[in-house]
Protein: DITP-XTP pyrophosphatase protein
Organism: Haloplasma contractile SSD-17B
Amino acid sequence: MCALAFVIPNKNPIVVEGRLDGIISIEPKGTKGFGYDPLFYIPQLKKHAAELSQEEKSAISHRGNALRELKTHLEKMLDEK
């Protein structure tokens, strides 16, 4: 999970979360990524994070999901002005 907050003085903060659900496996797989990526299995893709290309990982990552959500809120805020 990734949580982001965007704060402007005298305004309500924008707080968003991004998730990537998966399970920790016993057997590592893949050579891409770092840290826990070889152990993080993503059932919806039937792959470990370390088996994904950078493009695939960016499209589903918890950080990317949080940033996309924040972008949506900021665009809405700008449209209201």
Notes: The radius of gyration is 16 Å. The mean pLDDT is 93.
